[in-house]
Amino acid sequence: MQVLFVASECAPFVKTGGLADVVAALPKALAAEGVSVKVLLPAYPALAGQVAAGEEVAQPKRLPGGRTRLVAVRDQGLDLLLLDAPALYERPGNPYVDATGRDWPDNHLRFGALGAAGAWVARHGLDGWRPEVLHAHDWQAGLAPALLRLGRPAAKRKATAGTVTTIHNIAFQGLFPATTIPELGLPPSEFRIEGFEYHGRLSFLKAGLVWADRITTVSPGYARELMTPEFGLGFEGILASRRDDFSGILNGIELDAWDPAGDPALVATYSERSLARRLRNRAALERRFGLEPAEDAPLFCVVSRLTRQKGLDLLLEALPRLLGRGGRLALLGSGDADLEAGWRAAAAAHPGRVGVEIGYDEPLSHLLQGGADCILIPSRFEPCGLTQLYGLRYGCLPLVARTGGLADTVIDANEAAIAADVATGFQFAPVTAEALAGAIDRACSLYADRPAWQAMMRRAMRHPVGWQRSAAAYRALYERVAPDRPGRPA
C-alpha cells in the first residue's frame, strides 16, 4: 500500500513539537506493515542540503504562491517530497512565526500551497507512484483533503485517493480571513457552516475535518474529550456528527532513538536489570543543574514548553510542597515570558534545590529522562504527549494530569494498582495546584519504599511504548479508506 503524508514538520529536519516526531517515526513503523510512505514537506532553509541532493520530480501547476517544484530525496530512512518554493519558505527561524513571534502574514499561502501540492500528488501521482491514501497532519495540511475533492467538477468529486486527517492539537485551527479564499483555489460556495467557515473565518483544520474520509487523533482519551465543549474548542459538533468516522490511535515513540541501553546522550547506559547505573546519570544532572545531592527524596524533572497548557504555572504554585518533602527539581524548557521569568526566579530563590535551563537541548532531554526519578507533566490538556512515554521507557516515572493521552498511557500508583503490580506512574485530577501537590506527596512517600519504587521503574520500562500496535491500526484504517480496497464503504 502507498500513502502520502502531508505535514509541516518532520524530525530531525524541522521540529517545534511532537508532530515532527510522529511524522518521522510512523512511516518507519508502517514499513513493517507493508505500507510505503512518502512525506511531503515544505523545503525550509534547514532542508537546503536535501533539496540540492535530491531529484526534481514534478512542477505542479497553479499552486498558491507562484512557481514551485517537487524534489524527491531519501534521508534518515524517510522518502521525502520537498515542496521547493523559495518565495514561500526561504526565511529564517520558526516555520510559523517571525522573530517577533507574529504569524507570517502569508501563512495562508505557505500552507495552502502545501495542501494543494498534496492534492496534486494524490491526483496525478509521480513517475508511476500514486498514493492510495493521503494522510493530512494538523491544520497546515488541512486543505489537502478538501482540494482533492473540491478541485474537481461537482459531478466527478469522487477522490482518486482515500483521505485521513489527524488532529495533533485542536488548539491550532488555521484561521484566516475570508478574503483569502480566492487565492487558495477554494470554491466560495463552500464558505458556509457545513463547509470550511468557522465564525466568519476560513479554517484550514475544519476543511480537513469536513472532507476527509476518516478523522483520527492521537489518543483514545483525547478523541472522547474533543467531542465535549470543554475540549473541542468549537469543533465538538462536527466531530460528534462524524463519530463513526472518528477514532483515537495512540502515538508511540521510536524505540531505537529512545533506548536507555544504548543512548549516547547518557553518562551511563542501563537496562531494567542494571538500574544502579542510573545513579551516574543522576549525579551528572546534579552537577549540570547545580543541585545538592540527596538520597532520601526524589529528583523531579520537567522537559516542556513553558505554557499554561502544559500546567507549568500550577507547578510553580505546588513547588513549596515539592521542596518541603525534600525533593529537588531540574527544569528544561522555554515558552511564555512570564513563566520563564517565574522559573528563573524560583531557581534564584532555591539554589541547590531548583535548577533551570531556558531553551531546548535534545541530548540533555535524554539525560534528564535517564537520571531523574520522576518527570512532571501537569498539562491542562494533552492530546497524547510523548514525554511520558520517554519517561516510561527510561524508568523516569511520569507524574501526569488525568487528561487525554496522559491518562491512556500511565497507570496510577493507587493502592489497588500497587497491590496488583501494574502501576507505572502517578495521575492527579482535577488539574489544580493542590491536586498536583497531593500527587507529589504520594510520589515522595512511595520513593521512601525503595524496593516498591524500583519495582515500579521496571514495570514502566517494560510498558509497550513503541509504534507496533498503532501502526497496525493505521494500516487497517488505510485499508478501509483506500479506493477499490476490500472493506471500503461504497
From TrEMBL:
One of its GO terms (cellular component) is cytosol. Its EC number is 2.4.1.21. Residues 2-240 form the Starch synthase catalytic domain. Pathway: Glycan biosynthesis; glycogen biosynthesis. GO terms for biological process: glycogen biosynthetic process. InterPro entries: Glyco_trans_1, GS/SS, Starch_synth_cat_dom. It catalyses: [(1->4)-alpha-D-glucosyl](n) + ADP-alpha-D-glucose = [(1->4)-alpha-D-glucosyl](n+1) + ADP + H(+). Belongs to the glycosyltransferase 1 family. Bacterial/plant glycogen synthase subfamily. This is Glycogen synthase.
